[in-house]
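ok trying again, last paste got cut off:
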Amino acid sequence: MAKHSGETIIKKYANRRLYNTGTSTYVTLEDLAKMVKRGEDFKVQDAKTSEDITHAVLTQIIMEQEGKTGNTLMPTAFLRQLISYYGDHMQMVVPTFLEHSMKTFSEQHSQMQEHMGKAFGDASETKNFSSPFGFMEEQVKRNTELFRQAMQVFTPFPVPPAPKEQKKPDASELDDLKAQLRTLQTKLDQL
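nice, full thing came through this time. structure:
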């Protein structure tokens, strides 16, 4: 049986080989990474026990990708924070929060690309945000507020309110920021 409810079954054998039952071919972790990028749904099973080992294989793919390029998606500080939640009473909330954050990020990916293009192309065309990184800053604020609200549900003590919005920068501060942004753009262009 090659497919189960729309997902391809990948069998992992003791010799570490991966077999795609949908195409009847052996595949590599790189092939599985490409399947993920194409949005193909698959489940990895231990060939002997039929145990679902998808999570472990996806983690292995992430580690391989992180080591291969030198460009990491997960900063050290993030990894430390993630590790600190293991065994913590908040451990059960973290996966849902991360999944929701990534879903939101994915849904707004094209919008973010558009804003970044405008920011680095012509910063004056950027709409709705006071800086080129305003979109990302706004997204981080939303995710932080969602996380704060989630924490409030699971804590018996009142959670302090979110910090008040800071005052809007005056014209001289904006001019300084614009000058810094132009300098940064010049350095990026030289690279």
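cool. The two ends are 52 Å apart (CA to CA). Confidence is low (pLDDT under 50) at residues 123-127.
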